[in-house]
Structure formats: C-alpha cells, structure tokens
Amino acid sequence: MTGLVAVQRCAGLLLALGLLGACARPPQIPPESGAPALHLEEFFVGSSSGEGVFTNGFTGERREFRVAIVGSLTGDELTLVEDFTYADGEQDRKTWRLQRTGPGRYSGTREDVEGLARAWTENGQVRLEYTVKLAGWRLDFADVLALRADGTLLNRAIISKWGVRVGRVELVLRKPAA
Fold it and tell me: Can you give the pTM of this predicted structure?
C-alpha cells in the first residue's frame, strides 16, 4: 500500500467518524431537582412568551427570536397560536392543534408539518416529533420540553435531515406574572 492510499483511507475513516458523530440524537434535558412534571394543558392554556435561538449545525450561525403563545383547550384538543418575531424583523404565525389520544399522548398538526406530529410524556417531560417542509426540504424535528424549578419551560429541539443534525433550537418560555 502506498503512502497516498493510506492517507486516503485514513481521511475516509475520519470523515465517516465525523459524519457518525454528527448524527442527530434526541435532545436531552437533565432532570432538575424540585422541577414539577410537565402537563401540556396546565402550562399552555392561557398566554406564555419567551426567547429562543436557532443555531445552524454547519456554520454555527445563530438566529434569535421571540415568541408569544396563546393556548386554549376545547375537549381533548389543545390549540397553540404561536406568534414569532425574529431579530431581523421577520414575523411568522404558526398554529398547533394537538389532540389528546391517551394519557400523556397526543397527535397533532401545524400548517408546515407533514403528516401528524406525535407527542408523549416521558419521565415528567414531553417529547414531540414531527417533519416540517421548509424551503423545499423535509426536516425532522425532535423536541423535548421540561418545566424547571423556577416555573419556566425549557424546549430543546434537534433538526435533522437523513439522520444528520442540521441545526438545533433552544427556547425558554414563561407564564406572565400573576
């Protein structure tokens, strides 16, 4: 084996390991002492607001945003109207319709979601998985939402394409002061 072939194989192995390391893993939020379990209807009915950031997985570029959410519950359907304002001035509105399908389980829709989103409670946190069509691409989202001891809600999401992470979102929501 020539030196060039050995270098090419080594470079190929390093590239494969790098791609494997970039694979999307479900986001995690370590449990926080004193944090209550999250029940979607309890937190989201009424208004909440927060700040978040999308981070591009390739360039590290960040896009900050604010969101105001108004939630209502009719029977087993939780509706969340989300109004986003991005740091560059762009505004967007999305509406989730989440149908309770069993204890701690939901399926739902949103304007840009392909098919049904699914959500479920796991260890006091809520996991949410869905596919969004964005600029001609189908992107997979895996979110985890957890209440923290201070009453805020932390939402972390991993965005992937073909199993490779392309971005992440971190959002902190709070209820208005009583």
Answer: 0.83
